[in-house]
Amino acid sequence: MKYLNKETNGITLSRIGLGAMRMADIQQGIDTIHAALDSGITYLNTGDFYGHGESELIIREALKTRKREDVFISVKFGGMLTPDDRFYGIDVRPQSVQNYLAYTLKRLGTDYVDLYQPARINPHIPVEETIGAVSDMVKAGYVRNVGITEIDAGTLRRAHAVHPISLVEVRYSLLDREIEQSLIPTARELGIGIVTFANLFHGVIGGSNPEEKLATLSRRMPPQAAEKLKQAVARLDVLKEMAAEKNVSVSQLAIAWVLAQGGDMLALVGSRTVGQLRDTVKAIEIDLSKEDLQRIEQAIPKEYASNSAMLPIDLDENGLFKF
């Protein structure tokens, strides 16, 4: 494993983190978390709404045989789900923060979380108010670090002015590079680490059914953006060629590309099984040369990258999705 060059909470964060959103089988989840920790991963990412809280319960069980102080647990809050598992809004009202945190602490079986962050920001609620409420939980000793997710550079600055933001969590892949424009430079200026997810562009890069995933994403996008994305995907053959040359998988190579964009980047992987986890972490062993990166850039230049894979969430004043 490789690590970020600074400690957070006395823990050196691994450059690959395990996301627990898709964990459903309890024993399988426990085994996967144990394999991750044994591989050197120190960063676990979850959300109080993942599996209606089941993800946090799995982490609790997995850590019963491990030292709590050796693991960095990041938690997102505020996602609202229906009983049949559909998102219908975001609740990041300041008065809701400690309520969500109370249930998270209970499910995790811990008296603090290492990093707490709103799942998204409601544009009808000043970010200063939401982050201020999380900051209060830091002062109370229940939260060690404040994070923020899926925001722009201006919002990041405003949040950081209220309380130092330790990590910002954002989508990033060869096919989605919007954060390069202003968010990455701003985060680096402020000394904020960057946690990336969707490194495989929702399964389009190296997935088992890339055509199906591409079709699903395209239906959610404006026609011009969908066409641009198809053109970019058609250029992914260079990854297949390079993966074959290096005897690695396309997905491993795509994650290695993300990690090569800076030593302050941490890539989240969503492995659900021990086998998937062991295969994915091999990406950390791939060292891409300057020539490798230039070859990829020439084949898939940033102007081909889509910025619309996850369209902006439109919320009403109550935090409910507008459809």
Automatic annotation (TrEMBL):
<feature type="domain" description="NADP-dependent oxidoreductase">
    <location>
        <begin position="15"/>
        <end position="299"/>
    </location>
</feature>
<dbReference type="Pfam" id="PF00248">
    <property type="entry name" value="Aldo_ket_red"/>
</dbReference>
<dbReference type="InterPro" id="IPR020471">
    <property type="entry name" value="AKR"/>
</dbReference>
<protein>
    <submittedName>
        <fullName>Aryl-alcohol dehydrogenase-like predicted oxidoreductase</fullName>
    </submittedName>
</protein>
<dbReference type="InterPro" id="IPR023210">
    <property type="entry name" value="NADP_OxRdtase_dom"/>
</dbReference>
<keyword id="KW-0560">Oxidoreductase</keyword>
<dbReference type="InterPro" id="IPR036812">
    <property type="entry name" value="NAD(P)_OxRdtase_dom_sf"/>
</dbReference>
<dbReference type="InterPro" id="IPR050791">
    <property type="entry name" value="Aldo-Keto_reductase"/>
</dbReference>
